[in-house]
Structure prediction request, 152 residues.
Amino acid sequence: MAKNGQSFDKEIGGKQVEIGFTLRRDHTLASAAAGSVLAEEFGGTFSPERFKQEIAFGVERPIQRLQLQESFFFAGRSLGQIYVRTRDWGDVSGIKKHEKVEGDPSEIVVAAKAKKGGKARYSITIGRDDLAHCSTMTFDKKSEEIILYCSA
Prediction:
């Protein structure tokens, strides 16, 4: 069940992992941090092939298939493999530098530096491949729950 139609948290390896679902993506996809926890808890190993997967808004990132020795169970379903977002590919050297433009002297311009590092995000999004065995999805507005009915 997913509260507010979005996601819920499940503790895996001492970490709170946010689990949701999407009908926009074929594969179940975990963040790098969640993939690391899954690999440690369920004996996971990466396949050698790398793929690109759209993450959001047409942005693609590299993923690898994580094969689990022990299955991870979600809503009564056994997941033996999960794709994991590994890192970004790309090169920003081709992006032009912003040219200083003389502006209105009454304007205030604030420039910020990007954060380095950042907090690890533990998330898994269940994709169409793992939802294919589900026949019904019910939204209970009053209790704010989405209920999936899936075969074993």
In short: The two ends are 16 Å apart (CA to CA). The CA atoms of residues 115 and 140 lie 39 Å apart. Helices lie at 32-42, 128-131.
